Amino acid sequence: MSILELDNVTLKFGGLTAVNKLSFSVEQGEVFAIVGPNGAGKSTVFNLISRFYDPYEGSIRFDGHDLLKQKASGVASFGVARTFQNIELFDHASVLQNLLVGRHRHRQSNFLSELFFTPSVKRQEMQNRQLVEEIIDFLDLQAYRDKMIAGLPYGVRKVVEVGRALATDPKLLLLDEPASGLSVEETSDMRWWIDDIRRQMGITVLMVEHDMGLVSGVSDRVLALADGAKLALGTPSEVQSHPAVIEAYLGK
Ligand code: ADP
Ligand code: MG
User: Fold this and answer.
1) In terms of Cα–Cα distance, which of 7, 23, 168 is closest to 83?
2) Model confidence at 7, in pLDDT bands (50, 70, 90)?
3) Is the confidence metric ipTM above 0.95 for this complex?
4) Whether the Cβ atoms of residue 136 and residue 142 lie closer than 8 Å to each other
5) What is the spatial distance between Cα 103 and Cα 97, in angstroms, rounded to a whole number?
6) Closest ligand 1 atom to Cα of 225
């Protein structure tokens, strides 16, 4: 069963067609990777799903909903979370605080109940705290729990960003270049996190990634994009051996 469906989606920036009549669907529970040269439109696809941009044509459905009828905040509340190509965390807050921010959308309270800190708010806060602590354990971040983001190594910040997205309790996790800037060892760790997120948490993962080792290691299916259009779609080995893909990578 597919959880996400893009049908004939086009997005133009002035005269540039960044995404061109693109259709694909992501199955519930799979890891699906989008690959392609720089400028192929990969991040733009994420921005379309997150509703940062309106497509020029086409439809995007998620979990039975027409996403194009939603604002960005609506997409998040349906259970879509993302990380960014350039990490976006609160640098002057701790790991724990950044993850608690991810819980925000689950806060079921109003201004008055927060002011008087009612039992239900207290309960909600405790649940948030517990879930966030579980994510910290899951991602092996205990040693960094109370450390400020600004002082952390880049590789750890990448993992914290995944944690912040997980804290929203998503059905679909969008990872934009999770291995960029990571060492070989950190990339291998990231591969296991992604695998565990899918297997243990049951979350569907859609990622954009350049590292073909990571892509082949963890993805069920791969979509290769060039100039905003689909070049090939299939298993990692099918896509890597596809003549159009080889040409797009070697020909440029
Ligand atoms: P990728 O992530 O595959 O490297 P992007 O999706 O970031 O590529 O960009 C696809 C194309 O759209 C590129 O040519 C890029 O320059 C252009 N582009 C992306 N975002 C914008 C924007 N906000 N305004 C204008 N052009 C953009
Ligand atoms: Mg990009």
Assistant:
1) 168
2) very high
3) yes
4) yes
5) 10
6) 3
Closest CA to 159 of 179, 133, 183: 179
DSSP conformation letters of 57-80:
EEEEEETTEEGGGS-HHHHHHHTE
| Residue ranges of domains in the chain, CATH in brackets | 1-79+170-252 (3.40.50.300), 90-164 (no CATH)
Q: Which residues line ligand 1 (CB under 6 A)?
A: 13, 16, 18, 36, 38-44
- Tell me the CA–centroid distance for residue 103 and ligand 2, in Å: 26
Q: What is the DSSP letter of 47?
A: H
Structure tokens at 81: 């979370």
Q: Are 172 and 77 in contact, with CB atoms under 8 Å apart?
A: no
The tokens describing 170, both together, are 């998503």
Give the distance (Å) from ligand 2 centre to CA of residue 115.
42
User: Is the full-model pTM beyond 0.90?
Assistant: yes
The single-letter code of the amino acid at 21 is K
